[in-house]
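Design a sequence for this backbone.
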């Protein structure tokens, strides 16, 4: 993994010392546990399987964008028609806060 330089920009700018990450999964776990801090999004799932057979390492959602834009999310099992479920914005927000 390439080195990423980080800096503290409060007051005098100084480079922060980095440490090694042994496994990508270790870094993924740190990011997932701190998604709100790093990206301002709420963590939803790890190793999320997509309908096209792929997967996302980490999945998060911006709740403020969801609240302000009124998105609907359809969750479907592509193999079983009966498991289709549609959530409104209000239902999603309730599920996220459970």
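Sequence:
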């Amino acid at each position: 993994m390439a080195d990423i330089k980080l800096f503290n920009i409060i007051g005098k700018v100084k480079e922060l010392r980095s440490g090694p990450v042994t496994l990508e999964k270790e870094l993924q776990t740190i990011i997932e546990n701190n998604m709100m801090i790093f990206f301002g999004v709420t963590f939803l799932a790890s190793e999320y399987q997509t309908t096209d057979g792929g997967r996302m390492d980490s999945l998060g959602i911006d709740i403020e964008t969801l609240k302000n834009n009124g998105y609907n999310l359809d969750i479907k099992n592509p193999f079983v028609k009966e498991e289709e479920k549609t959530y409104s914005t209000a239902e999603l927000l309730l599920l996220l806060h459970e």
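The two ends are 36 Å apart (CA to CA).
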